[in-house]
Write a structure and sequence with these properties.
Length: 226
């Protein structure tokens, strides 16, 4: 086994240990954020533009794990829609709130909070609840609880842009990127097959790498729940 493989395996082992407790949440919560200029560049990532095009039919939208709110800011020109973002990092929320204030964006509210507890929002109070690569960092012991919080809060639909693979024999696999799930196995027992649809990220958006292999938009329609 060469040094590169050894280091990779050590990294994966460390990630697995981190995901088994709350250390990874604390890492994201206290991680020093970049300058706003770097975030503005990232906001134009093709996958973000592709993702947000699915949400133009809603009157209210919540992103869980919103970071500083880049996806929401992309959609903020939909003036009749109200946007909400929850993130575990107080620094990200402060950065995004300051930017929105400076830019005169008044239809976005950003709050510090956890995906496991969306108690800031009442049942069926938000048309669409979505995530963008959040479940990479949600371990198997917590994923069902988080999914149920999404479903409780959503009025119409839940969207998850995450790493999905139907080749996984069990429900999940830990990788150097985070948790890769077989979302059919995870979600069908909870919501039923009729409510569930999966849309592969177009190859041209990320033509190489693990995004090309795994990135999938998982949609759950509440009107079709089992």
């Amino acid at each position: 086994m060469n040094l590169k493989t050894t280091l990779k395996n050590c990294k994966r082992a460390m990630i697995y240990l981190v995901y088994r407790d709350n250390a990874y949440q604390n890492y994201w919560k206290f991680k020093k954020r970049d300058s706003i200029e770097n975030y503005l560049i990232d906001m134009q990532s093709p996958h973000r533009i592709w993702l947000t095009n699915f949400f133009n039919h809603a009157n209210s939208i919540l992103e869980v794990g919103c970071d500083w709110g880049g996806n929401l800011i992309l959609m903020s020109k939909q003036e009749k829609c109200k946007f909400y973002g929850i993130d575990i990092s107080p620094e990200s929320i402060e950065l995004g709130s300051k930017y929105c204030l400076e830019q005169g964006i008044n239809n976005i509210q950003l709050k510090e909070g956890s995906a496991e507890n969306l108690s800031l929002f009442s049942d069926a109070s938000i048309d669409i609840v979505f995530s963008d690569m959040l479940f990479l960092y949600i371990g198997p012991t917590k994923i069902e609880k988080v999914i149920k919080e999404f479903l409780r809060t959503a009025n119409k639909s839940v969207y998850l842009l995450e790493f999905h693979s139907e080749k996984i024999r069990r429900k999940h696999k830990n990788s150097e990127d985070g948790w890769i799930y077989n979302y059919k196995k995870v979600l069908e027992p909870i919501v039923g097959s009729a409510a569930l649809s999966l849309i592969k990220l177009p190859d041209q958006i990320h033509p190489v790498g693990r995004w090309k292999e795994f990135a999938t938009l998982i949609k759950i329609e509440k009107s079709k729940l089992k």
